Write the structure tokens for this entry.
Amino acid sequence: MTRRYELDSMRGILLVLMAFTHLPTGLSRFANQPLGFVSAAEGFVFLSAFLVGSIYTPLLLERGLGFVRTRIWKRTRRLYAYHFGLLLFAFTVVAGIAHFGHSRSLHDFLGPFFHSPVWTSISAPLLLYQPPLMDILPMYIVFLGLTPLLLQFAARRGWWPLLAASVLMWIAAQLQIGRSLYGLLAAGGYPLPHDAWSSFDWFAWQLVWIGGLWLGSAGTSTSPAASDTTPSGSPHTLRRRTYILIAALSAAALLLCARHHIGGFVSGLDSDTPLTSKWHLGPLRVANFAVLAYLTHRLLLPLLHWLRIGWLELLGRSSLQAFTAHIPVCVLADGLFLSAAQVSLPLQAALLALTVGVMLAVAWKTDPPRREARAKRDRTSQRANHHAVTPRVSMSRPVSMMSD
């Protein structure tokens, strides 16, 4: 797959929006669902799944399930290591500040840990206890770990059975199946509260992941020959696309006004109703996301491809490392400064700059092209050193050299 720099920039934008949402600054309420009943988290999960589907579907067909499973599970283990590091940070640094510094907000942040330290210490590595802000990575880890099986099933039997099962599971989530299953655990003696597991309803959010996998895989199966024969420039096609674009813009504008209570449109609709719930992925939120995803594809991605914003692309290339790095900063900031009203504007600016700076530093350190370039320089240096000593070797015997 040819690298699409606009997708890297898009992931960078989503990372910045999530970081600004989590910080106690005046920008938080603007960064949180700015364009309607859709947050950056939906876009981040969907785009990650899209890239996984577009990258690994061709590899599955060319090199087999074993190769894809090894690659994906290696990445899954690395992400689990990131999450485990965040847990250690929470149970040592954050817990220490909460206890010895008498921080009520940080104590509440780790409420289940202080109430049941043994159970949380056992449950957290099993992804059964997830402190706030640390609950998107476990969901991502589980979805990514299951992806080889999903891709294999889709390659054998097609995507429609998976999509149908995903929709049914999403419907079950709207009927609170997750809470019902927790009730069974609680009846069996599990002591942690329901909200100690995750704010995200995995039964609902799997729809975003599987939808992204499907579209990413579908994009790789379209042959150039087929796309060349499509009369995409015909007047009828252009007219139809124009109508769809106008309808999408109108729907997005209406939902934007409803989200921010502008003009009295759909009065009384807010972000925590069953229709718009973020955690259960309500029906109106799914529709809003589909509209914004279409507009992003048609309008924003071409603009980002033309602009080529380097620092956003850098964040996007190392998005998961940068995301992991911003969590400790946000946790401590939220614990030490309870709300934006308690933080002066200069300090708010410093918090924003610090968070973005930490994310950029980590992204630069772990940037894949930078690592590849460094590895290439190392190989070149090794070859140069090898050639420097080869004249001392008798040419009557072959010189064996290990493959790079």
Remarks:
- The mean pLDDT is 86.
- The chain has 18 helices and no strands.
- The first helix runs from residue 5 to 22.
- The CA atoms of residues 394 and 400 lie 12 Å apart.
